[in-house]
Write a structure and sequence with these properties.
The chain is an alpha/beta fold. It has helices spanning 14-23, 45-51, 70-82, 97-100, 112-129, 152-160, 185-194, 208-217, 228-232, 236-244, 256-273, 277-291, 299-307, 311-321; strands spanning 2-5, 29-31, 35-36, 61-62, 64-66, 87-92, 138-146, 167-174, 199-202, 223-226. The chain binds flavin mononucleotide (FMN).
Length: 322
């Protein structure tokens, strides 16, 4: 089983990925938060820094792109191919209203015919470029099962099956469900059976038990993608590998002590990327909204963290927690 670290915009940028990989190796691949391809045919400097090969040389990165236009997507694939990437992932999952109203992210699932035309144009354009000097990356999808009705999954599967994607990562929720409520395992099952491509499961895998239950249901599944579960417990990939190798997962559990050097280095890495402790603390506070689950009874300390204004406030919070 391969383990992929999910893309999480605002969290899993390169400072986080590198520091996580150093202290908690075990993810076979990381996906970048989405890069926007638009009519300017330029990525932002921050986006280019995030996928620059020299900022990702300790791990395997698959860059993710968000766009609603085939021409823009193919441009992005070429640029990323020139940087050396062999796979580019297309975002069909972002549920945010500003994205969806522009028919991007999960908004691409709203109109199946338009999605079909988009894929057709993408692969037409890619085919015309085949044989160019740079070998073009393969295309994978990260998709939800539909926009507003689980029945849409049937048509979506038919459409996807007509195109040569290298992998389909499925988060079995509708756009309208954002990231809450239970995932539709039965719809994932149907898509898994029907899709002709390698399929990856993503959604709500937070513990070794969650992953083992999934493996029982889908013994041939080649990979799972995990996001929030790895933020809540940074040792999760280590625990999963340990169990897979026949070891006692208890021997791989996270200790509070190993969190401190990880968090200190992450703070330092963010400080190099951003100007000022306030911005860095904003990032650390966001991460702690997940990490807090490791510390039962930490409500009071978390309140202090929310109020923390200076680095000294943050250090005092850390000393109390760890
Ligand atoms: C804060 C946040 C940011 C996210 N950013 C992205 C993103 O940039 N691209 C993407 O495909 N999914 C994004 N996602 C979705 C995650 O990759 C993942 O599909 C989702 O969290 C469900 O998996 P999990 O239950 O393992 O966390 C984001 C989710 C969250 C909570």
């Amino acid at each position: 089983m391969q383990y992929y670290f999910a893309p999480m915009e605002g969290i899993t940028g390169y400072p986080f990925r590198n520091t996580f990989q150093k202290y908690f190796p075990g993810a076979d691949r990381y996906y970048s938060p989405f890069l926007v391809a638009n009519q300017t045919f330029h990525f932002k400097k921050k986006e280019l820094r995030d996928v620059a090969p020299e900022n990702n040389d300790t791990l395997t990165l698959i860059p993710q792109v968000m766009t609603a236009q085939a021409e823009q997507f193919v441009w992005a694939v070429e640029v990323l191919g020139e940087l050396g990437y062999r796979e580019v992932n297309l975002n069909l999952g972002c549920p945010s209203a500003t994205v969806v109203t522009r028919h991007k992210g999960a908004g691409m699932l709203e109109d199946a015919d338009r999605l079909d035309r988009f894929f057709e144009e993408v692969f037409d354009r890619l085919e015309k470029k085949a044989g160019a000097l740079v070998e073009l990356p393969g295309i994978s999808l990260k998709t939800r099962i539909g926009f507003s009705d689980v029945k849409e999954a049937v048509r979506l599967t038919e459409i996807i099956n007509r195109y040569p994607f290298c992998e389909i990562i499925i988060h079995p929720r509708l756009r309208e469900e954002y990231y809450g409520g239970t995932v539709h395992r039965e719809i994932f099952h149907e898509m898994y059976l029907e899709l002709e491509h390698p399929v990856v499961f993503n959604g709500d895998l937070c513990t070794i038990e969650d992953v083992e239950r999934l493996k029982e249901d889908f013994p041939d599944l080649g990979a799972v993608m995990i996001g929030r579960g790895a933020l809540r417990n940074p040792a999760l990939f280590r625990i999963l590998h340990c169990a897979e190798g026949g070891g006692d997962p208890q021997s791989a559990v996270l200790t509070k002590e190993e969190l401190r050097p990880f968090l200190d280095e992450l703070f330092g890495e963010y400080s190099r990327e951003m100007s000022g402790d306030v911005q860095v603390m904003f990032k650390m506070k966001e991460l702690w909204t997940y990490l807090k689950d490791l510390f039962p009874g930490s409500e009071k300390a978390m309140k202090k963290l929310r109020k923390a204004k200076t680095r000294a406030d943050y250090e005092a919070f850390l000393n109390e927690m760890i």
